[in-house]
Amino acid sequence: MKKRNMAEPLRLTAKSASPGIASGPAFLAEELKAPSAPERPGADPQPQTAGGYGALEKAIDISIGELERLAEGADAESRDIIDFQIEVLRDPSIAEATGARTEADENVVFAWVATLDAYIGELETADEEPMRARAVDILDIKNRVLGALAGTPTADFPPGSVFVGKDMEPSRFLAHDWSKGGGIALFSGSTAGHVALLARAKSVPMVVGTGRFSAEDGDPVRVDGDAGAVVLQAGRMLIPPMVPARSATSDMQSESGDLRTADGVPILISININDPAEIAALDPATAGIGLMRSEFSVTSIADAANEERQLAIYRRVLEQADDRPVIIRMLDIGGDKPLAGLENLPGVASGLRGIRLLLARPEIARVQARALLRAAVFGRLSVMLPMVTLPEEIDRMRELFREEAEKLGRRALLHRMPPIGMMVEVPAAALMLDTFGSAAFFSFGTNDLTQYLAASARDDIDADAGKAAPAVLRLIAQAVKLAAGKPVSICGDMAGDPSCLPGLLAAGLRHFSVAPGRRPAIRSAIIGLNADGTRAAGE
After folding, report:
1. Phi, psi of 515 (to 5 degrees)
2. What is the pLDDT of residues 278-318, one digit of tens each?
3. Which structural domains are found in the chain, ordered by start?
4. For 225-245, how does the pLDDT look when each residue is reduced to its tens digit (9 = 90+)?
5. Does 511 participate in catalysis according to the annotation?
């Protein structure tokens, strides 16, 4: 988010949910706070394979145990809220609905998510505010069980902080030490919710209904629960309810310093990342993130079912990109790319991978689509589909995104439809690129393209890549002509190989996305080449 030009404090009107005044550093609840390794005593060192109903029962038992420990020594009001959550976890109708979905050929993790989401949806559309306020309690239960399945419990936040987020879960409030001060500022929330009740009981200043505003971790924030206001000392800004969509062309054609070929043609260099930590390599001379492989951040079926965790990951990347374009590839799982628990999904045939797997098991795609739609308001996001072979695959995924966007709209959740493009890594798609009219952009994935073009085994691809390079370059050159002016880039290993640059430039490519460590070598090589791939005079 951009800062305001003036640094004067911004005062936002809100509803008072609990009286009192608190100041402290902001804690952004939607940032990535969950640990990458399990911290629960006795938890497995690796994410659990959440496949059978037994695993879900174990996760529910773990969650009940956590809530019971949280209730030890709690006051009566807190105990009542915890008892309600435990009662829901033990509710036989919840178990029956989940079991029925599982018997209907639905994976048990996604059966759990669908059952709880249906419950949440009913509460969110209720006429009475106290009923609507209960939705966050059920969301809390859903995510606690998912955390137990994945072995990644939600971390606490620093004492004395001002919690900033859309809403707050009751168990998170109860687990926090409020003796050091702090307060709560919620974009939405309810004065009738359980957290508001708890805040009043423990004299924690709290306001709700501020509207979404920009902030960074550590920004000084003042919560005025007496007057119903929040003051942003760092001069941040209120974010409008809807963010206009940018075109894929404008996102892909950002300026990247003054990098040009020897004959003056502008060239973009982006980086490929596997996890948010690698975004540190995004220096000012980098155009953006040309490929984020989301499957490296989603390590189990439980993570794939956790919309809030995925949202936090994508939001972190977009905000750190600082308004530069970010292309996130949807989960490229299956085949030789394992995901813990994937083998337990019915109907996943051996070798099924990428978009075919996502369309075969749309429950995975729908969770990720919702997370991406919600994340898109935080930056310049584009979504890339993996292993596309046929135009209808893009059409079906775009329809899935539209359906999930409508659902988010009915729930009044902020979202934006991002441009949706495709990886060009299947030879059949490269040869027919002019038929993919609904794709917003194309990016060549040369690793798989080379393997399938050369009929290589995965283990032999390194040895065959050099021999197959002329055929790959010819196919890319033909495909670029078929792209009909749509944004085109390359994100495979060939993009980071200086020996391939002349052929790639000659093919018409002007946007290269490479591993962070390869960027300096590619920049140096481009400066010595003309746009047609020939060496500059004197080189």
Report:
1. -60, 145
2. 887 678 889 999 999 999 888 888 889 999 999 999 999 99
3. 10-33+155-232 (3.50.30.10), 53-150 (1.10.274.10), 248-527 (3.20.20.60)
4. 988 989 887 656 665 554 445
5. no
